Amino acid sequence: METRAISATVARFLLESKKLLINGEWMESSSSDLLPVMNPATGERLTYIAAGNEEDVDRAVAAARAALEKGDWKKMTPMDRSKLLWKIADLIDLHADELAELETLDNGKPISISRNGDVKASSNVFRYYAGWPTKIVGETNPVSNGNYLNYTVREPVGVVGQIIPWNYPLMMAAWKLAPALAVGATVILKPAEQTSLTAIRLGELLIEAGVPAGVVNIVTGTGKKAGAAIANHPRIDKVAFTGSTEVGRHIMQAGAVNIKRTSLELGGKSPNIIFADADLEAASLGASEGVFYNMGQDCTAGSRVFVQRQVYEQVLERIVQYAENLRVGNGLDPLTDIGPIVSEEQVERISSYVEIGLEEGATLMSGGKRVTDGVLKHGHFIQPTVFANARNDSRIAQEEIFGPFVSVIPFDDAEEVISLANDSIYGLGAGIWTRDIGRAHSMAKSIKSGMIWINSYGAVDPASPFGGYKMSGYGREMGAYAIDLYTETKTVWVKMD
Ligand code: NAI
Ligand code: MG
Q: What is the pLDDT of residues 272-326, one digit of tens each?
């Protein structure tokens, strides 16, 4: 197998162990503890990151609070914040190849996804929010209880903790940071311990762009230490979290200490529903891409594919075909479709669901085995997996697996598939494939999820709200919604007589 050699720039970045960014400076953890960073494709150690702790988070919070309350950031005009965000976007684009390579080394994802998906989406979100600082407005309100001028102003929510996962490391950092910076908040960002490298490199670019000291602090480390310290900190005003539902619950509980604002983007078990009248080629492709993209490590992965019975076999065959044509390999190889799973823990979790599916009596149509031959033997690879005839109430159709693993389930009519699709603790995304426009819209109305895609699957854009119903979390990112997430509304009453 051919893989590109690591570029000199990236090799230089990896040479020294990575530090925490606190108050504009790179520093070691107070404990000097380090965590190894592994390449999931080879099992090799890439470098070390600092293992941040409570004391480090404390220092970061002090820096963020000082930056919020006085100094350059507070004085910066909205127009200058716009320019700063635009400059960050330009710097991401300028370093796109380097960031993509680093992402693939750290996370494993195919280089084409890193370069054309994650990195582009990251600069786009900064560019989108660059337009916002000059457009965050209040209102004047027609009150009736006296001669008052009543108006509102939007103020930054304060010091924000942002805890992000490993599936889209740079992109999640961008989604979180861009709106927070647009409103003038200050941040302590904690990347996932498995994949902190691109967030650290982004931190360097933020400094280069001119983000004042203390505005963005990056504390790497484990969820148990650094993450929990953020969730529990009494001087952090808001926590924005993306990750598992289990940890989301901890974040809510910890937030009770000081009535923190919290927003949660959690798991999903999204239905992708194909009616017999759909363009079956497009629908089968959309269903396949909708679950295998990014090795299925995607909160919106369409991991339950419902197919109307009269076309069930046909669609199933196409999905199996698609899965079998996917090339498993090192993400640096441009021919790779399916890179390694992020960690040994995750690949074991996916494997365990293959066993569960078999025990539950679903039919394994394709994949399900770990790939251990040749140069892949030290990495975390698994074949794309397709189960047929899974019951919607089985564990493989109810629990988030977060891998290249799909359950294909037959249904007879719209009423049945609505109840099956909604029979889930989650409600993040849903796909609907049909040529009947009335049915498309009435399905969109009936499905309980935050995002619906009709005759397509998984599109995301900074202008379009993103988030879930039910146990997929609450709060919406993107668009004006993220401005709401990171601001408070202040009402002012002025007596006029
Ligand atoms: P996780 O939820 O533990 O990790 C996400 C982030 O939370 C990481 O930065 C982690 O360090 C942090 N964290 C962990 N424990 C914490 C705590 N007690 N307090 C504060 N922060 C904490 O996810 P994990 O364990 O890596 O993956 C397990 C499963 O979670 C996956 O199989 C998948 O089902 C789901 N997941 C969902 C994601 C999504 O985008 N919705 C992303 C990653 C995982
Ligand atoms: Mg965890």
A: 999 999 999 999 999 999 999 999 999 999 999 999 999 999 999 999 999 999 9
For β-strands 370-371 and 381-382, DSSP reports them as antiparallel
Looking at the fold, whether 33 and 141 belong to one and the same domain comes out as yes
Comparing C-alpha atoms, which of 203, 194, 260, 156 is closest to residue 60? Answer: 203
Number of domains in the chain: 2
Alpha carbon of 227 to ligand 1 centroid (Å): 10
Indicate the pTM of the whole model.
0.98
Same domain, 202 and 326: no
CB under 8 Å to 373, separation ≥6 — which residues? none
- CATH number, residue 81: 3.40.605.10
- 255 and 166: one domain? yes
Domain residue limits at 24 = 8-266+473-491
State which ligand 1 atom lies nearest to the alpha carbon of 254. 19
Same domain assignment for residues 38 and 158: yes
User: Which of 265, 289, 313, 399 is the catalytic position?
Assistant: 265
Per-residue pLDDT, averaged over 15-44, amounts to 98
> 298 and 223 in one domain?
no
Locus of tokens 């050699």: 5
In a domain, 2, yes or no: no
Ligand nearest the Cα atom of residue 244: 1
Q: For the segment 313-362, what is each residue's pLDDT rounded down to a tens digit?
A: 999 999 999 999 999 999 999 999 999 999 999 999 999 999 999 999 99
Ligand of minimum distance to the alpha carbon of 296? 1
The pLDDT of residue 5 is 79
| Residue indicated by tokens 């009269």 | 310
Residue 1 domain-assigned?
no
Decide if pLDDT at 78 tops 60: yes
